[in-house]
Amino acid sequence: MNADTPRREDLQLGREIVGRINELAAISEDPARLTRLFLTAEHRAAAELILDWMRQAGMSAHMDPIGNVRGRYEGERDGLPALMLGSHYDTVVDAGKWDGPLGLITAISGVADLHRRGLKLPFAIEVVGFADEEGVRFASTLLGSRAVAGTFDESVLSVRDRAGISLREAVKAFGLDPGQIAKAARVRGDLLGYLELHIEQGPVLEQENLPVGVVTAIAGATRLAARLTGMAGHAGTVPMQLRRDALAGAAECIHVIEELCRADASGLVGTVGYIHASPGATNVIPGEAAFTIDMRAPSDIHRERAVTGIVHRIEEIASRRQLGLQIDVTHENRTAPCAPWLRAQIAEAIAAEGFRAFDLPSGAGHDGMAMIDVADVGMIFVRCRGGVSHHPDEHVELADADAGARVLLRLVENFRPQTGAQ
Ligand code: GLV
Ligand code: MN
Ligand code: MN
Q: Does residue 132's CB lie within 6 angstroms of at least one atom of ligand 1?
């Protein structure tokens, strides 16, 4: 630690952030398992709380037509181009409380700190709480950030959740107008950059004994939905050789996905995180099995080849087992590199806070993957205990939350737009 580095001795930012993380985590569809899916009543309650925090921090704030919460802190004069800060406020099922909210709450606390000091910068700051980063409810993901980036695909409005509700219906039931989603978009010249602070969700910073790190790139991802159709039948009477068991077929597919990824030395990962078998009774041979596949790799070409290979193997399995197959890509994102000029400023802020600036890639997806279409992207990672994430044991130490907040605030206060940008 550099002794000359100005420090906040009292962890004031960290304490405010951790308090709010806990407050937000209390808003859950299931009191026993933190779950806050896109466009639910709990999602709405969380949005209202965040809007309130934004206003207390001196921002004007509103909800946009896709359900993102948006705050704006004007600069030295009104209407200046903005530096955008953000992260998401939806969660996975049985989530940790830091994934998404840490970055959003830290950004709000940073602006509140500027506001308390009466400090205005030569640019505006916009804070966004993205409505759907996890993509749990409607197979497609990054819907909030895609709306802001102007790349929202209207055809997604027809996609239905597992209860049969379309995205269009859910947006309306939330009190928003799906016909207005295009109005959420910003254009590149409006934004000086997009910065996101997020928990690492992996163990590298812990291994390096560092509270924060500089993200180099966000790994690309492909999500698929597969459905195998066989023949339901009596579990006691149909001989094994005559069965067309869809779930047994799905099990073979899952095994193949795991084998292919395990045999790959380049960082390819594949996950089947959801499966549903019908009709779903102990004494009935499953006639149908639907499952999802999530594939990621540091290299886009490698991921694309792996996806093609896996689809081919699944086709073979379905054909050999005489199963019908439908397989669709529900989400695809290329690798998003973080902008070198933003990485340099993040590294500078980290060093000024007395820490070693350490580069690492992100294996997890983030809203920056969509925001890259409208702004250069930079990301700060904060250490999380054991690298555990997408799990209720996800944890960030108070001192690390505070360190992340100090880095973000320093970065914002010293922010220099890229030469040639406005
Ligand atoms: C989001 O957390 C993702 O990487 O799937
Ligand atoms: Mn996240
Ligand atoms: Mn997540």
A: no
The Cα–Cα gap between 47 and 374 comes to: 24
Cα(104) to centroid(ligand 3), Å: 13
Instruction: Judge whether 12-218+336-413 and 220-333 match in fold.
Output: no
Angle (CA) 302 303 305, round 5° = 65
How far, in Å, from the CA of 365 to the mean position of ligand 1?
A: 4
From atom 5 of ligand 1, which residue's Cα is the shortest distance away? Answer: 365
Report the CATH number of the 12-218+336-413 domain.
3.40.630.10
The tokens for 383 are 């250490």
Q: Is 220 in the pocket of ligand 1 (CB under 6 A)?
A: no
Atom index in ligand 1 nearest the CA of residue 92 equals 2
What pLDDT tens digit does each residue of the chain (422 aa) get?
Answer: 444 444 445 899 999 999 999 999 999 999 999 999 999 999 999 999 999 999 999 999 999 999 999 999 999 999 999 999 999 999 999 999 999 999 999 999 999 999 999 999 999 999 999 999 999 999 788 999 999 999 999 999 999 999 999 999 999 999 999 999 999 999 988 999 999 999 999 999 999 999 999 999 999 999 999 999 999 999 999 999 999 999 999 999 999 999 999 999 888 999 999 999 999 999 999 999 999 999 999 899 999 999 999 999 999 999 999 999 999 999 999 999 999 999 999 999 999 999 999 999 999 999 999 999 999 999 999 999 999 999 999 999 999 999 999 999 999 999 999 976 54
pTM value? 0.91
The domain defined by 220-333 folds into Alpha-Beta Plaits (3.30.70)
Could you state, in order of their start, the residue ranges of all structural domains in the chain? 12-218+336-413, 220-333
Of how many residues is the chain composed? 422
- CB 364 near ligand 1, within 6 Å: yes
134 lines ligand 1 (CB under 6 A): yes
**Atom 3 in ligand 1: residue holding the nearest Cα:** 365
| 3-state DSSP assignment of residue 77 | coil
Measured in Å, residue 38 CA sits from the centre of ligand 3 at 13
Contact present, 246 and 286 (Cβ < 8 Å) = yes
Mutate to test the pocket of ligand 1, among 94, 97, 102, 134 (most ligand atoms within 8 A of CB): 134
Listed in sequence order, the residues at least 6 apart from 194 whose beta carbon sits closer than 8 Å to its beta carbon are: 84, 85, 86, 368, 371, 372, 374, 375, 376, 377, 378
Measuring CA to CA, which residue among 224, 217, 220 is closest to residue 140? Answer: 224
